[in-house]
TrEMBL record:
Keywords: Isomerase, Pyridoxal phosphate. GO terms for molecular function: alanine racemase activity; pyridoxal phosphate binding. This is Alanine racemase. It comes from Paralysiella testudinis. Its cofactor is pyridoxal 5'-phosphate. The active site is at 33 (proton acceptor), 250 (proton acceptor).
């Protein structure tokens, strides 16, 4: 068996959920889109089923997978439907669709609902990606709340810069949103993970936590309040000692400055490890910090072995407990979200 393993610690997931819900103070959606940020949506939903107030996914396909697995909690469709016909399935499976534009609204009102639907109505408070402009929001809200087919409207918006607390933008978006919903009934949902951590004035009724649920701080660096859920590890399956001045890997991009013990490990960019991670990106070998040497290949990469105790069979942590995924993301010029979502071909081992 190729020894690349994604250990998924479901107890960490549960603990993070409880921590985030307590920090937020209201109800909390566990965001499971993109296969639970690469962790496995069904297993994560099952692990949280007795704790979570609800789940959120991007689209109906993801919600149906959860329903088929027996998940009965509310599930919010964060992007709403992509075609009007999906409302029949939304109705049948009692999903909670986001409505973020006029055609989604009209199609929802035109659908003949068997069960009155809970709608998450999205405002564009400044991010300018999706949602009704503030001046169009109240009419949309009224159209929904006047319909006997609508059980409830949750007022929501999304922040562009919540992970950059020094910027004013979150406070500005909050002010725009608060003004536009001042006279409108319904629960409010505005906070992603970063807002839960960094913006206590932007919590309200429903939080929506994704990245922090998986144990990663959206503010960068490590945060001991959150326990890393995924630990990605592999093993050294080749070793060699090279004299000074010898290249390693594609492009001969790294040249040994001195006599070097190099270990070959089973993990590459086809597994989702970022190819842009260069020499120096941290790894941990048998629990000791070390570094990557040269370029990441498709199926393999080379790491620096520290001493004669390390060699074939040594365990290498790519990220998890010793190596924080935010360090790897920084070294690769990306964000932990992308690294987690990209993990594939690894053997997933779930630990309760
Ligand atoms: C993905 C998503 C979230 C979760 O964001 P995190 O930064 O991972 O906490 C919250 N709200 C919406 C609308 C999203 O699309």
């Amino acid at each position: 068996m190729r020894p690349l393993i994604a250990h998924i610690r479901l107890n960490h997931l549960r603990q993070n959920y409880q921590t985030l819900k307590a920090m937020h103070g209201g109800k909390m959606l566990a965001v499971l889109k993109a296969n639970a940020y690469g962790h496995g949506a069904v297993r994560c939903a099952q692990a949280l089923a007795d704790l979570a107030d609800g789940f959120a996914v991007a689209a109906i396909e993801e919600a149906l997978t959860l329903r088929e697995a027996g998940i009965t909690q509310p599930i919010v469709l964060l992007e709403g439907v992509f075609e009007a016909a999906e409302y029949a399935l939304v109705d049948q499976h009692r999903l909670w669709p986001v409505v973020q534009n006029a055609w989604q609204l009209e199609a929802l009102l035109a659908h003949c609902w068997q069960h009155p639907v809970t709608v998450w109505l999205k405002m564009d408070s400044g991010m300018h990606r999706a949602g009704f402009f503030p001046h169009d929001y109240a009419p949309a809200h009224q159209a929904l709340s006047q319909s006997p087919q609508v059980a409830a409207v949750v007022n929501m918006t999304h922040f562009a810069c919540a992970d950059e607390p020094h910027k004013n933008m979150t406070a500005e978006q909050m002010a725009v949103f608060d003004l536009a919903v001042a006279d409108l009934p319904g629960d409010i949902s505005v906070a992603n993970s970063a807002a839960i951590l960094a913006h206590p004035n932007a919590h309200r009724h429903w939080g929506r936590t994704g990245i922090a649920l998986y144990g990663v701080s959206p503010l960068g660096g490590a945060d001991s309040r959150f326990l890393p859920v995924m630990r990605l590890s592999s093993k050294v399956f080749g070793e060699r000692v090279l004299p000074p001045g010898e290249p390693i890997g594609y492009g001969a991009a790294f040249v040994t400055p001195q006599s070097t013990r190099a270990g070959l490990i089973a993990c590459g960019y086809a597994d989702g490890y970022p190819r842009h991670a260069g020499t120096g990106t941290p790894v941990a070998i048998d629990g000791e910090r070390s570094r990557l040497l040269g370029r990441v290949s498709m199926d393999m990469m080379t790491v620096q072995l520290a001493d004669h105790h390390q060699g074939i069979g040594s365990e290498v942590e790519l990220w998890g407990d010793v190596i924080h995924i935010n360090e790897v993301a920084a070294a690769a010029g990306t964000i932990a979200y992308e690294l987690l979502c990209n993990v594939k071909r690894a053997h997933f081992v779930y630990e309760e």
